[in-house]
């Protein structure tokens, strides 16, 4: 009669204990990936806004509208522009930037518009501010993160 091969109960317990130790040491490293994901989401939107502003300026320059100020009220591809860059309004940024669905409009005025991430309960700690061009200078977007709303730290 042929003897069946297999693992003993002690061998199986040893393997399970080793896997448990590995899981305990590796889990904190993987849990910190949430912080990186939140930060990357913010950086991604900032990059999208900056990229859309640059593309809009390029289209405005091709059409000779890069010097148009707020009083001129010009548009490029349905985007209101000021000095060639998108105006700081929710309509202009939504037309210029794809993927604003996860971001909640907070306020606009004085040449700036503020968005916050929809999933956060602490909206004042996780915001993106876009400031329209004040002259023939480049528009700017600013990333503002504090506390645990964006970084995930406690």
Describe the structure.
InterPro entries: N_methyl_site (IPR012902), Pilin-like (IPR045584). Keywords: Membrane, Transmembrane, Transmembrane helix. This is MSHA biogenesis protein MshA. It comes from Photobacterium indicum. The chain crosses the membrane at residues 12-31. By secondary structure, the protein is an alpha+beta fold. It has one domain. 42% of the residues lie in helices and 22% in strands. It is built from 4 helices and 7 strands; from the N terminus they run H-H-E-E-E-H-E-E-E-E-H. The strands form 2 sheets. A 4-stranded antiparallel sheet has the order 4-5-6-7. Strands 1-2-3 form a 3-stranded antiparallel sheet. A hairpin with a 2-residue loop joins strand 1 (74-76) and strand 2. The longest helix has 30 residues, at 33-62. The radius of gyration is 25 Å and the shape is rod-shaped.
Produce the secondary structure layout:
Layout: H1 9-31, H2 33-62, E1 74-76, E2 79-82, E3 85-86, H3 90-96, E4 103-109, E5 112-117, E6 126-131, E7 140-145, H4 147-151
Antiparallel strand pairs: 1-2, 2-3, 4-5, 5-6, 6-7
Briefly characterize the structure:
This is MSHA biogenesis protein MshA. This protein is an alpha+beta fold.
Could you give the distance between the termini? 63 Å
Helix proportion: 40-55%
Number of strands: 7
Report strand %.
15-25%
Write out the strand line-up for the largest beta sheet, numbering strands in chain order: 4-5-6-7
Following the backbone from N to C, one meets helices and strands in this order, namely HHEEEHEEEEH
How many domains?
1
Number of helices: 4
Low-confidence stretches: none
Instruction: Please tell me the overall pLDDT.
Output: 78
SS class: alpha+beta
Largest sheet features:
4 strands, antiparallel
**Rg result:** 25 Å
- Overall spatial form: rod-shaped
Protein name: MSHA biogenesis protein MshA
Keywords: Membrane, Transmembrane, Transmembrane helix
InterPro entries: N_methyl_site (IPR012902), Pilin-like (IPR045584)
Pfam family, one: N_methyl
């Amino acid at each position: 009669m042929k003897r069946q091969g297999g693992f003993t109960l002690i061998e199986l317990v040893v393997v399970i204990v080793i896997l448990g130790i590995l899981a305990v040491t590796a889990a904190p490293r993987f849990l910190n990936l949430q912080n990186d994901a939140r930060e990357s989401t913010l950086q991604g939107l900032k990059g999208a806004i900056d990229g859309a502003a640059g593309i809009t300026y390029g289209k405005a320059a091709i059409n000779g509208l890069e010097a148009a100020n707020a009083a001129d009220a010009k548009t490029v591809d349905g985007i209101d522009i000021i000095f060639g860059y998108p105006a700081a309004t929710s309509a202009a940024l939504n037309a210029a930037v794809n993927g604003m669905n996860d971001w909640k409009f907070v306020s606009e005025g004085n040449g700036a518009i503020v968005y916050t991430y929809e999933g956060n309960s602490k909206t004042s700690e996780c915001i993106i501010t876009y400031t329209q061009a004040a002259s023939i200078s480049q528009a700017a977007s600013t990333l503002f993160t504090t506390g645990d709303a964006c970084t995930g730290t406690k």
